[in-house]
């Protein structure tokens, strides 16, 4: 391939007229047609001569550039494009891709010593209890109930008074846990009680200060809690995937040592509240691990084959009281957000294993298409299990807002559409199948991927889904992935009539991200927002260049 990029023929740059079709109903909803979807997967054998013919499809154009859409991912939270992919972009747009890099000075340095002489003093006890009370009322706590109130009292006594116990035997681990908790709570409670993001960053630094000493202590509940709390802080304050990867790796070793990968009644003859809560923390770690793995492409820290992934049977008469007794059975109780999220994490693990591992990349087309169909059905079944008011769906017209737009709907909406994107974009690997089907039809797997990307971005714009500091950076990699999907679709079909709407959507997402810049955030927080907004704005610019170039060539 020459340095000037792949030579795309005039015919290859101009696909047949038409676009992804949708049906409008009286309610203004747009439905993606999937009734013919199963039939698509029955046709996997293609005559040899068809492999040599031109097919103006999304997948084929990507293959001209020696890139598959399924490999254009936001690894490490940033767009990752190979040299051949960038050459394809230049061939389509006539422009080079320019991505602003984050200056090293703005990256998080959690391990740096504090210059504040009081930086490692525990927060005032009254403040800690006020924060605990407020955090316990937050929706975020429903997703990540890392602390058990009764057990955390032992942690407080150890950290503040040195009164160690079997629940909290390590002083350094206890201090790290307290600092990590108040750091996360400050992030979640941003804007109340005078909390700022810089306040949260200061306590993250303090928690990291105690972690090296905590690692010299025995494996404890406090140590595991501190690590998971720091995982969430690293995500929320800096989208620091390198730190998260280190922390999740450490969390997995704590879990194995504390036998959290097994049901408490299986691992222990007489389980204690600590044993049950460790099992509960296993599921939170599992959720984080599988989500990060799918978003970054990194191998998961927790291996499914080494874990018992069954849920304990909880007596129905105790479910109503389970919110206040989270550690009693270990596994999340049915209907809780952790239970719902854990079921999705199990599917996310299958998506990564069946579509993105080295073995999955080598599987025959027929096996890949079967895996796509199977995983699509699994995600749809999970979605249908959600309450109607927080159940995600494909594109809806403006004005048909969901019943709830708080964090619950935002998280499930984001995860559902991201799963659909990650499942269906892999069909671009099937060159023979893609060349025998028009990928713009609504039964096309790639069309589903593009529509899911559009819907993911559309909902955050028009329904003002919750994007507080605690989940903005968590969402950035998903916004980047969806924007890259739409961008690649535009480059593949620059003359399609709907491109201007998608270009406008990409630009509005960049503006939405920029508008979340806050004056009280740490440099690492602002750096990621600045980078993401800049990268997506660059995609918008190049997409418009591709459309303009195609129009000039068509008219010339």
TrEMBL record:
Residues 17-27 have a biased composition (Low complexity). One of its GO terms (cellular component) is nucleus. The keyword Ribonucleoprotein does not apply. Residues 244-318 form the Xylanolytic transcriptional activator regulatory domain. Keywords: DNA-binding, Nucleus, Transcription, Transcription regulation. It is found in: Nucleus. InterPro entries: AtrR-like (IPR050987), XnlR_reg_dom (IPR007219). GO terms for biological process: DNA-templated transcription. Residues 1-28 are annotated as: Disordered. Residues 1-12 have a biased composition (Polar residues). This is Xylanolytic transcriptional activator regulatory domain-containing protein.
């Amino acid at each position: 391939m020459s340095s000037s990029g792949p030579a795309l023929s005039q015919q290859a740059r101009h696909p047949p007229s038409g676009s992804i079709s949708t049906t409008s109903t009286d309610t203004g909803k747009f439905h993606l047609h999937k009734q013919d979807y199963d039939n698509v997967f029955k046709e996997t054998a293609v005559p040899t001569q068809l492999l040599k013919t031109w097919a103006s499809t999304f997948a084929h154009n990507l293959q001209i550039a020696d890139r598959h859409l399924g490999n254009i991912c936001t690894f490490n939270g940033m767009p990752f494009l190979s040299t051949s992919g960038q050459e394809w972009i230049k061939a389509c747009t006539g422009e080079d891709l320019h991505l602003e890099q984050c200056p090293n000075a703005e990256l998080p340095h959690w391990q740096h010593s504090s210059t504040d002489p009081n930086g490692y003093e525990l927060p005032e006890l009254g403040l800690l209890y006020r924060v605990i009370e407020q955090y316990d009322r937050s929706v975020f706590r429903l997703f990540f109930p890392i602390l058990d109130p009764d057990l955390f009292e032992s942690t407080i006594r150890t950290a503040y008074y040195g009164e160690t116990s079997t629940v909290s035997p390590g002083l350094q681990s206890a201090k790290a846990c307290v600092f990590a908790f108040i750091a996360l709570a400050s992030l979640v409670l941003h804007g109340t009680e005078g909390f700022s993001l810089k306040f949260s960053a200061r306590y993250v630094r303090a928690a990291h200060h105690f972690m090296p000493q905590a690692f010299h202590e025995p494996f404890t509940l406090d140590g595991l809690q501190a690590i998971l709390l720091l995982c969430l802080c690293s995500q929320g304050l800096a989208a620091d995937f390198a730190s998260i990867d280190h922390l999740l790796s450490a969390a997995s070793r704590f879990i194995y040592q504390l036998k959290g990968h097994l049901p408490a009644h299986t691992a222990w003859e007489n389980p204690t509240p600590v044993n049950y809560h460790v099992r509960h923390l296993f599921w939170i770690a599992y959720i984080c691990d599988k989500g990060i793995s799918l978003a970054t492409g990194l191998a998961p820290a927790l291996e499914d084959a080494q874990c018992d992934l069954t849920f304990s049977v909880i007596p129905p008469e105790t479910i109503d009281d389970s919110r206040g007794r989270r550690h009693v059975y270990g596994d999340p109780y049915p209907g809780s957000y952790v239970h719902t999220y854990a079921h999705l994490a199990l599917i996310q693990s299958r998506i990564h294993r069946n579509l993105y591992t080295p073995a999955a990349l080598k599987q025959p087309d027929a096996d890949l298409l079967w895996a796509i169909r199977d995983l699509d059905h699994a995600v749809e079944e999970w979605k249908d299990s959600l309450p109607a008011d927080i159940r995600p769906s494909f594109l809806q017209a403006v004005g048909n807002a969901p019943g709830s737009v708080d964090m619950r709907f935002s998280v499930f909406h984001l995860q559902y559409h991201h799963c659909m994107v990650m499942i269906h974009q892999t069909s671009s690997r099937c060159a023979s199948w893609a060349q025998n089907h028009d990928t713009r039809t609504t039964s096309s797997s790639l069309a589903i991927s593009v529509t899911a990307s559009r819907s993911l971005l559309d909902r955050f714009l028009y329904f003002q889904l919750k994007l507080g500091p605690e989940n903005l950076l968590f969402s950035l990699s998903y916004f980047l992935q969806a924007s890259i999907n739409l961008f690649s679709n535009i480059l593949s079909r620059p003359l399609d009539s709907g491109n201007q709407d998608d270009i406008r959507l990409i630009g509005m997402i960049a503006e939405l991200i920029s508008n979340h810049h806050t004056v009280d955030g740490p440099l690492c927080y602002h750096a990621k927002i600045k980078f993401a907004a800049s990268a997506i704005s660059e995609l918008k610019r190049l997409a418009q260049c591709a459309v303009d170039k195609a129009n000039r060539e068509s008219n010339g």
